[in-house]
Design brief:
274 residues; alpha+beta; Cathepsin D, subunit A, domain 1; 2 domains; 6-stranded mixed barrel; 7 helices; disordered N terminus
Length: 274
């Protein structure tokens, strides 16, 4: 009985591989920059894509190294160089965050392309062509871009700017619009906004006896409590395109930070929103 050793060989065309990776990296970097909120140019995006495509072809051609090691240990520095070229990130933390986004997008895009190929006989048969892969990559990029923009519009609807007259001029803070905030002042039944104590340091002009309020509240983990607050004559709430002014607004003092990351200093009830 004879032993047959069969070796399968394939031909890789570096120019086609470079062009395909260039196009796909363009899509990935465009989405990465969009998520990061980075202002970049198409020239920098193209340069970053060229770095990625060239680096991938170079890593693929390295002899004597298993493919998995070439991919993992080669693409991390290449991906970092792509990000630095296209998005100009600052610091290692932002760079690694951007790398995570880039690799996640790459994984999702690859999975979505496989999904699309399985939905059509034509794509199943011709899905490995440059035109088909580029087209499917473009579809993923367009859908991802629309999702990011819709998510940002939704997020903007939950945040706004609020300004008061302070001790040394106008004081402006970021506010979260909380639809679940039903806090009211017991006598007037007016809705109550909540401001962290750090911001109150610039609003001592309103901390007068005749403006003083005590507001009872209920929260998870604490059945009941009292918040100190004051009535402020005028408060302006600013959105992206509109601005509203509210008079005789009751604002409670929160002992501590409302946002651990400092992204907002105030919680607004929906009655005091735009």
């Amino acid at each position: 009985m004879k032993n047959w050793n069969v070796q399968l060989r394939g031909t890789i065309y570096i120019d086609s591989l470079f062009l395909l990776n260039l196009v796909m990296d363009l899509y990935l970097l465009l989405l990465t920059a969009k998520i990061l909120g980075k202002t970049t140019t198409y020239l920098r995006i193209f340069a970053g894509s060229a770095v990625g495509a060239g680096g991938y072809c170079l890593v693929l051609c390295l002899p004597g190294i298993p493919y998995i090691f070439r991919t993992v240990f080669g693409m991390i520095p290449i991906g970092a160089l792509m990000i630095k070229t296209a998005c100009r990130t600052k610091g290692m933390r932002e760079l690694f965050y951007a790398l995570g986004i880039l690799f996640t997008l790459s994984f999702v895009t690859g999975g979505f392309i496989l999904f699309l190929r399985g939905q059509s006989r034509m794509l199943t048969e011709y899905g490995d062509s440059f035109t088909a892969l580029s087209g499917m990559g473009f579809a993923v990029c367009a859908a991802g871009k629309k999702w990011i923009e819709a998510h940002r519009r939704k997020r903007r609807n939950y945040f706004c700017k609020v300004s008061f007259s302070g001790d040394e001029g106008p004081v402006e803070v970021n506010a979260l619009i909380d639809t679940g905030n039903g806090l009211t002042e017991p006598v007037s039944r007016k809705p109550v906004a909540i401001l962290d104590e750090e911001s109150w340091k610039e609003l001592k002009m309103w901390m007068r006896p005749e403006k003083y309020k005590l507001i009872p509240y209920h929260s998870i983990g604490k059945k009941r409590g009292l918040l100190e607050g004051y009535e402020i004559d005028t408060m302006k709430v600013k959105g992206n395109e509109t601005e509203k002014q509210y008079d005789k607004v009751i604002v409670a003092i929160f002992k501590g930070k409302l946002s651990a990351k400092g992204s907002y200093q105030m919680i607004l009830p929906p009655e005091l929103a735009i």
